Amino acid sequence: MLLKDVKNVLNCKSFIDDKLLDIEISHCYAADMMSDVLKSCKIGSLLVTGLINPQVIQVSEIMDLKGIVFVSGKEPGDDMIKKAEEKNLPLLTTGRQMFEACGILYSIGLVGAEIQKKSEDGSRNTIQFVV
Amino acid sequence: MDQEILYSSSYKISGRDFVNAGSVSVKIKKILKEIGIKPEVIYRVSICCYEAEMNVVMYAMLGTLDFIITENEVMIDIEDEGPGIQNIELAMQEGYSTATTEIREMGFGAGLGLPNIKKNSDEFKIESVVAKGTKLNFKIYLN
Question: What is the rounded average pLDDT of the residues A6-10?
Answer without folding.
Answer: 98
